[in-house]
Amino acid sequence: MTELWQQILSGLGTGFIYASLALAICLVFQGTGAVNFAQGVMATASAYLAWSLVSNGMDFWLALVLVLAASFVLGALIERVFIRPVEGSSPLVMLTVTVALLIGLQAVVALIWGDDPQQLGSPFGGGSVEVLGARLTAQQLGAAAVVLVTLLLAGAFFRFTTLGLRMRAAAQNPASARLLSIDVGRMLALGWGLAATVGAVAGVIFAPTLGVSPAMMDSSLLLALAAATLGGFESRVGAVVGGLVLGVAANLASRYIPGIGSDLQLVVPFAVIFLVLLLRPQGLFGRASSVRA
Amino acid sequence: MTLLQLTGVRAAYDGVQALHGMDLAVTEGEMVALLGANGAGKTTTLRAVSGTVSVEGAVLLDGQDVTGWAAHRVARLGVGHVPEGRGTFVDLTVEENLTLGALARAKRLRGQVKEDLAAVHELFPILREFSRRQAGALSGGQQQMLAIARAILGRPRLLLVDEPSLGLAPMVTTEILRSLRVLQAEWQLAVLLAEQNARRALAVVDRAYVLESGRVVASGSAAELRENTAVQDAYLGAEQTGRPA
Amino acid sequence: MTAARTPAVVEPPAERDSEPTVSTSHALPPAPRVGLRTAWWTAALAVVLLLAALAPASVISDFQFFQLNRVITFAIAIGGLNLLLGWAGTISAGHGALFGIGAYTTAILVADHGVPWPLAVLASLLVGLLVGALLGLPALRLGGMNLGLITLAIALLLPPLLTRLDWLTGGPFGKTTPRVEAPPGLPFSSPQWLFLVNLVVLAVVFWLLSNMLRGRMGRALDAAASSRVMAAAHAVPTNRITVAVFAISAAVAALAGALFHLTTRTSTPDSFTFLLSISLIAGAVVGGSRSFVGAIIGAAFVVFVPESLGGFVEPAAAGQWQQVVYAAALLLVIYFFPRGLAGLVRQARNRLVRRRSIHARSQEAQS
Amino acid sequence: MTAPPSAAPTGRTDDSARQRPVLSIRDLSITFSGLRALDGVSFDVPTGGVTAVIGPNGAGKTTLFNCISGIYRGEGEIELAGESLAGKSPHARAALGIARTFQTPTLIEDDTVLANVMLGGFSRTRAGLLPHMVLSPRSRREESELRDRSAEALELMGLLPLAGARAADLPHGLRRRVELARALVAQPRLVLLDEPAAGISHTEALEFADLLTGLAERSGATLLLVEHSVALVMRVARRIAVLDFGKLVVEGEPSLVRRDPRVLAAYLGDEAES
Description:
The structure holds 4 protein chains of 4 kinds.
Chain A (H helix, E strand, L loop, with lengths): L1 H31 L6 H17 L4 H24 L7 H23 L14 E4 L2 E4 H23 L1 H11 L1 H6 L4 H22 L1 H4 L7 H14 L4 H21 L10 H13 L14
Antiparallel strand pairs in A: 1-2
Chain C lengths: L33 H21 L7 H27 L6 H19 L3 H20 L7 H21 L1 H4 L5 E2 L13 H25 L1 H11 L1 H6 L4 H27 L1 E2 L6 H14 L4 H17 L6 H22 L5 H11 L5 H9 L1
Antiparallel strand pairs in C: 1-2
Helix pairs in contact in C: 1-7, 2-7, 2-10, 2-11, 2-12, 3-4, 3-5, 3-10, 4-10, 7-10, 11-12
Chain D lengths: L14 H4 L4 E10 L2 E11 L4 E5 L6 H8 L6 E6 L2 E2 L5 H6 L2 E3 L12 H7 L9 H5 L3 H20 L15 H14 L4 E5 L7 H18 L2 E5 L3 H7 L2 E6 L2 E6 L1 H4 L3 H8 L6
Parallel strand pairs in D: 3-8, 3-9, 6-7, 7-8
Antiparallel strand pairs in D: 1-2, 1-4, 4-5, 9-10
Helix pairs in contact in D: 4-7, 6-7, 8-9
């Protein structure tokens, strides 16, 4: 029982990586209709940036703040430079652009920082905490807490602020939004910036666990895509919950199902998605569109 | 004082010329109709003003040349536009749709949102009743009401309304046109109204322009146009003779 | 063999202000004249085949034939993928895996069971059809992006599965089969012979597919992709059509994979990774996802562009620079030709035929 | 892939069937998240001619259409020429002879007008995938027959000059006519028209009314339309059903309906005088 509890908790821990990347993917999808395959490598770049700063003697938290700001700018810049030319194109064209970004950015990261994996020390120290009978490292707990706060802040931003409302409006019906004096281009860039920031939080805060390398986010990206599918691309809450569910499911499966191993661990999330989508095609939290025919 | 002035405005979509040198003016606080058949250029004229189609010529708003401006910049000058096909945010609630409208208003009017919202609810009670509902769940006609309400809440100086009668029950259309008239007086709101149904429009507006093939072919006060059978016959159809079946 | 559609009738922007050209007749747009088109293509193909067969090794080396064979097999797979991307309005991130399944089916049948390669290729096609139908079933409930991400699963799972099932697949070392030789008496080298075979298969497959898309099925798919409600209102069974087209698309990909195996002779798990699936999508978009000529252009792009970029930089970072340039090339094509490179061909053709403006005809219709 | 088999394709009926309504709706109800969109609606649509449904915005008119064409599953019974539609999917209902147009004209934007109209004949052609792939004589014959019929429908709508135009390039008013031509090519028994006259002027609406009457006669199909143009409705409809708040207020001949006090209060207002 304690063992199971332990596995669930540590699954939740990794689930937060997928949850935040999935949220980032959702934000971009809602804004520009693009499934951003480059979201993971953008977070990797943020992690490398933090590693550079910290290994040059900067305090971790200060570095985090700077990296988040830089990631925001970088995300918005990517939208302005690379996405703007294809704004309003088909999802297929958008997807190909983000694939090109993935290929290009991954190479650029490797050119700047090299292929060798690097280590980033945990800002939470090496201690561990007991939670209801399960033992969690301070890193696991701290990282989860930071991501949780980020997700809540992002949710509150969209739910309660007028800027958030404007961004949602611009995402949904750009033509109408313009007629209501909303600068749609700026909103989309903001959306990408915000998504990059959310992804950067995950990249930096989990870097001590994942290790810093060009491929550090690869499998997380795939799980995040799966999570976004599970939650329904339209639902931000769904993406987050989807990420957590997949984190737990993957962890439990590799522990309790014989023969899964790390190479086939990805079976589990997709099996989960498969089942869920067969029952609820719109995803866990997606709404069947209520738009009239 | 002239609020809106179009001089020699030409516009084209995908190589198809829709406006061939449009000239018209709207004075502050005036209600003006654009009449004419399908494809005469009414919608394009409204779009030329709000910056949602690229134009040649000159569009002056309160003396300022806004030709070629992005739509959101024109909107900031106090131009509201109820587009053809409603353009509601279907996944947002009715309330959120209205809030977005109110956010578009000038800063000095921000304090009056509550009263104005009450006025809008008075006009369209269904919007209060459904305020938590997704806009997409409304019927076609209800969405049209929402689009008009949203634009009004922006407290524009110039409101462009494209075919308010589209998909609306006759009683509702009459009610909307009357309400626009009242608001126009209370809020110093100028209205440019594109409408197929000339009789209905001429009953409420001050003046009207008759368009054909992207040009103005006749204009005058509502009373003049109501009397002018030549114009009626040539461009608007003899609607007074609409007889009981 | 371009996509079977009547070209868009839009006046070139340069003619924006000109008066509408005068009408001459009210004829329907020409019906696709199948007989003539087919004759053209057959003749063109025959010429190419003849030239290729006559070309001495000094003109086209065996390696170049090898490369061309890769292009053709990729082109077939992309053509199959186009059914989904360009017509069904959905996406498959798993066509690389289906390609791999086709390759392995042929490899196993030929290497372990002594099946003649033409039969093995046919078996690959059938296996692809079956797997495609099974994968397409979820499409009954899912659409668009969701389907794409389900197919992502097989793209990710196939390589580790191929490694694990070593009793069947030979594990990490894969399966190797002997060279495919030309029938005795024909003066072709093995790569030349394969080139001929591949080219004929490409022509036949594209001919069949474009026939299918030109008529009833194409309209039904277009309708379903633009609005499922509208399609159903015209009696189109959207679910069944989606499954059928997914199965056909998968069968074509598997067929292409089988031919690819005959070309490379060795199939290993890491030949068919997620990256391959992504490359196929990129190829489809670069070429133009509604065009079979585009499929060939796209295939050439994904085969030649990354490889031709090596050798300019120091070896250590060569791979990375290659990646950067590839990404840049991809972006540039998309920015400048959002409808794919095949759009260039179409544009040139349209410019030759002067068309009356919509406006003039609208006025006629209105009056 | 062949189309599902369907009942007799023609809209024509013999004399005994003429008595039978083409569409019979019994006690139809549907609820969306607590909102009763239709509430025990029952009425018959007589075979032939034009029947209209009118009512204030949000009365449930489009919902009624969606129930008939199977997009929504309501409670109650709907019969097409005596055959129950219960449990039939939208495409099966279309194959049985229910065609429709949409409030916002829905076309395949990137296809030609001709191809759009030919889509209407989907249920009237049989050749499957393989015959089409190899261009079998049958598939080619079907295609060319469908082409001819589509051309006729386009001619009827005055759209023939635009047959090769891209649907997306058409002005709004013509898009409705393309939809109508597309519906006709299906040789339906019943055509549901959702606000066919929206956005056209009073005069045009009257011309359109004559077009509709002519169509109903020539095609043998029954037209059921939702419309706000009272002038149009009064001119073409044999019978009118009035909905308000999801309930059937009154159903009957135009002369009866236009004098009904409940209709005047809920819907027509001063428009009844025109």
